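To close the chapter, one final illustration. This time we ask the reader to focus less on the individual chains and more on the assembly as a whole: which components sit near each other, and how the overall shape emerges from the parts.
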Amino acid sequence: MKRRSLLSAMAAAVVPLPDLKLLDAAPETYWKRLRDEQFLLPDWRAYMNNGSLGVAPRPVVAAVAEYLERGAGMIGSEYPRWGYELMESHRKEAAAYLGCAFENLAITHNATEAMSMVAQGLDLASGDEILMTDQEHTGGKGAWLLRQARHGLRVRTVEIPMPPKDSAQLVDRLIGAIGPRTRVLSFSGILTTTGLVMPVREICRAARAKGVITLVDGAHMHGQIPFRIDELECDFLAGSPHKWLFAPPGCGLLYIRDEMLERLWPTVTTEAWTNRGLKAARFMQVGTNSRAVLEGMGAGIRFAQGIGPGRVYGRIHELARRARGLAAAIPELELLTPEDDGLYGGLVAFRIPKPVFARFAEKAAAEKMWIYGSDLMRIATHVHTRPQDVDRFFALLGESRSA
Ligand SMILES: Cc1ncc(COP(=O)(O)O)c(C=O)c1O
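The assembled structure is written out below.
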């Protein structure tokens, strides 16, 4: 007996995005419908940690499932997944969203891998210095620390004030720390600790003027704040579309500026590693991959485009402002997110006394609410976040102030 496709139920569950006219007429109804119809999150779930991992909406899950199912019945020529494909359509779609040429964009498995490829692939000598902030994610600093241990590079960190006075102070701190042996400035466009949005272009421009290579850890950038890579003036940018860009877990991006295509050595290699004509695709010749995940990444980008990146940002930030206001009203919290709207997107951070955190964590766990942090906490908002989720988060926090 021929069994039915596994996908028919999934495909039937995917409906078009709500009409944007509804957004003008009744914004809260629009966002509620978006969450109810487009996401698989149960109604009772307040998902407050989009910063660690985002949520794939239904069209993304359907795209992954569809490709997996089709792949299970295909032969090689119908289902290219050997790891030597150039993935041009996927790269073009991602490049159009990110604002760069697709020839400069490689697809990786995540931002960590992309940053390791840069750190392992640059010719640097013992004594050369890598400068970074004191708040880099371990995925951004690990490979540099490895090269420090293995090749004698020197990793030096620069303290970032929490909160900073303004963005000029951030530029001054990083650029002022550049020394005669500094070769690379490796820093996050949005800090994982507090969600602070760094003045990336100003930093990259000034570093470039001093002959220093820039690697931007953009894991939190695309999908959270609007920007174009080709306006950032960076040499490399690593991305994780599975955080804010609705992609399924396990896909990443690496932007490589033209001059760097020549200077960077591939780390994982197979036959085509010598073919410079492939440009950035030379760095994604890594063996068999999960094409289904890439189909999901494309669906995630189309999902963001369907709502409109500006509207996504507007909603994320509106909810983050609400979170910041609620955090500011609790005297026990030390707010780490500055008031300036340009310095944060959808992440708000604060310090919290340890016993309060312990009680809060217990209450959140009882509601299966995903929170992030310890005595330094970070709350994340996205389009699936409801205003009542933010309110509930702070209500639980308020109740945790006394035992
Ligand atoms: C700033 C930053 N960089 C890198 C990463 C690692 O991302 P991935 O797991 O996609 O490599 C994270 C994850 O939280 C992060 O916050």
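The pocket of pyridoxal-5'-phosphate is lined by residues 52, 110-112, 137, 139-140, 188, 192, 217, 219-220, 240, 252 (CB under 6 Å). The radius of gyration is 22 Å. With these observations in hand, you are ready for the problems at the end of the chapter.
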